[in-house]
Amino acid sequence: MKIMYDVKSERAEEFISDAEIRETMAYAEAHKDDRPLIVSILEKARLCKGLTHREAAVLLASGQQDLTEEMFALARDIKQRFYGNRIVMFAPLYLSNYCVNGCVYCPYHAKNKMIRRRKLTQEEIRREVIALQDMGHKRLALETGEDPRNNPIEYVLESIRTIYGIKHKNGAIRRVNVNIAATTVENYRRLKDAGIGTYILFQETYNRTNYEALHPTGPKSDYAYHTEAMDRAMLGGIDDVGIGVLFGLETYRYDFIGLLMHAEHLEARFGVGPHTISVPRLCPADDIDTADFKNCVPDEVFHKIVAVLRIAVPYTGMIVSTRETPASREKVLELGVSQLSGGSRTSVGGYVHEEEAEENSAQFDVSDRRSLDEVVGWLLDLGYLPSFCTACYREGRTGDRFMSLVKKGQIANCCLPNALLTLKEYLNDYASPATRAKGEAMIARLLETVPGERVRENARRYLKAIEEGGRDFRF
Ligand code: SAM
Q: Which residues form the Radical SAM core domain (predicted)?
């Protein structure tokens, strides 16, 4: 298939070409009932080497029930093959809701006088992090609004240093991912030097005209600067980046294609695609009513988006947050999601002061309000293995090193034992008796499936050492 757009271009308009997206949408619509084509795309997908945005768009457009079932079955197979039953756990930490932007879908927008603006001090961050450590979290995603005066990069860097420095009982945050506004190559370099895991930034929408209407004021209104952020992050040395769109802002067909074109662009220019893709759906929030947005994505379509993404980019982790209900999370876990937040608070200071949420300072209304222990117990009931692993990034398995291990199918050799070890730590230190019993049974069952006799023997030894008080063993 001829590529019309310049996939290696450094300019947003070229690697996310509006003309290419529209042409792909028309092509997908024209072929949505073309069974031989769809069957051949599914055949290619079975090789687990991924699909082009064009092929994936045809799968998404197809409305034929039996073929959709085939897509779902393939997504489940691919998920099982690359991720087994492991689900990586994390929590967001909101540092500040000061924001100078005018994003019309976000309650942090500068004109919203109803929410209480807050920015955590380093001491408050310490208390929030200890509350998160006491739940059992090891991996955080930092969130801030964009405000160069209140939340400058120095504040974010200082907060990261604070977080990594907190040792409390057996708790320690071992990986800090960062979701802050688009910034300069130099600032990305400083984030890299501070030891961040993944840099996450959602495109919101790839449709430039719509993007500009949805972001009327503030630095985020610059479409090109925002869209080229991951290129700058990679130039700054960050090799694990997480992309996503906010489904509901634009037609899902447009943004689905944009998302995959963005992934293709990063792979073509830097030799490594995104580490993760997030699939947030627009939620009601303080002064945000989803009824004002005509592109909200219904559940069946959402499930299909997740399944086709799983098929199209088998090596890319997929993240779902507490924006989704437990029922919706259950469905997308099955179809491809590999990372899940649990016990989340989306208000600044919400882990220490739960009433913060009631004060309407939250970024969006959470649809899964269960504690981390409840989520872990639920995952175990469903047959999943909750993992608190952070080993890859700490062992330097990032960017193309990580991807080449995934592509060779070797990552599972580390992931499974690491998941067992970190679940064991969780069960010993934080779990309720019921969750602990379920988790121990899961560990006993899966230990026997760890590939390689030596690794299995070491895993057994480390599990015993954890029982006796040792921590932080990893492969
Ligand atoms: N301020 C940073 C930026 O500008 O990219 C990112 C942090 S923001 C706290 C995280 C994400 O929340 C945004 O990128 C957006 O996609 C999402 N978000 C904003 N309003 C939302 C809403 N009403 N429902 C669901 N998600 C929302």
A: 85-323
